[in-house]
Amino acid sequence: MKVHVDQDRCEGHGRCYATAPSVFAPDDLGNGQELGDGTVEPEDERRARLAVANCPELAISIEDPITTGDAG
Amino acid sequence: MGDHAPVTDWATDFDHTDDAWAADPYAIWSQLRESCPVAHTTRYGGAWLPTRYDDVAAIAYDTERFTSRSIIMSEFRPPLAFAPEGIAPPISSDPPFHKESRRLLLPIFSPQAIDKLEASTRAYCEELIDQMRGRDIVDAAADYAQHIPVRVIADMLGLPESDADRFRGFVNHVLEGVALPLEQRAEGMMALFGYLMEHIEDHIAHPRDDLISFLLQSERDGEKLDPFQVVRTIGLLLIAGIDTTWSAIGASLWHLAGHPADRERLVAERAILPLAMEEFLRAYAPVTMARLVREDMDWNGCPMKAEEWVLLPFPAANRDPAAFEEPDRVIIDREVNRHAAFGLGIHRCAGSHLARMELRVALEAWLDAFPSFELADPDSVRWSGGQVRGPRVLPVRITTPS
Known about the structure:
Chain A is of the alpha+beta class.
């Protein structure tokens, strides 16, 4: 699973990095950004989904891995 | 609250300074949401009141048709000549001017910058608590909540703490004096800006390490900011930072004083404080904003006229059953809580990280000192009316652990 914060929509409420600090972090203006390439470790998935659900601007998208033959 | 006639029909004649609104706006909004989701009044020269989450959001996002030239509804509309920056940039600014004047402020109010103020905020909360110890009954609003943001914002701006009573007087006039006649309203504004201008002149002569000096040294398009823009932005920070946070702290303590099961759980499970705070912010969001209609138009069937007001009651949006499960129940570990207490869109409260830090520290310090407290006299609790709602009289009985 990967997440991405749309910087055109983010207004810096900070709900994502407060909810899932291992997945998101603030920039110098307080806007949320995914850490690294946005890949979410399995143990962080629940928090990442809560961050998405709590974003007032609906600025975060989730990319779920497409299940392929070699999955698992 | 002024001398307005009492409201008898909230759908066609609403008034946010009416005593019924201060006492319990939720019942009014809930009824309107079902019967007349966008109410109107001819008071204040004409105004509209949406109560659904989606309508409040749509107007907050529509900066083309709704201007922020004034965000406090009263008889006073700032002259058009103040546009595009408005009377108190950036809250009163529209795009494209808005973006850069907001950008100046955001780094000062970023979570990283606010972290540095936590220790002094906690020390101040503890100082206030020490003054309350040993008493049976204290006023959690007047003795505690109201002092915290005044002190924090005075320190940040670089204004003398000894002027705290004066700040509160200015803020009270701007936010709660909205039903006053135009002349009195204008006089109050001039008193605030006159006071601030003195301090800004002093900062120009003697720069120091605070927000006023920072703004005076800031540049926009390669030029130093005009002191008149600085004074208006400082006015905004003073007004926006005090009653709002005071209200959020007070409302949270009011809830805990009246709901022993929630209080006991929070004392026992401190880890849920972040969720509880967001729930208090949702359920008791203090701030309603306002916009002005730019041009005559039909908005979803509402015949809106240029220069009419639109109130943006984020607290009403936060109680919309279409957006929240069981919106009128306070669930202190509510996990999915996409509330709009700090607004939506480009005008998201620039001080929200500061407000959350103050709220968290104020609640932590209070719960550490007074894990057990209750409303001393529920009937004597008084809430402010207008666009910032919070308890102003809040007597609680504190039981200091032996």
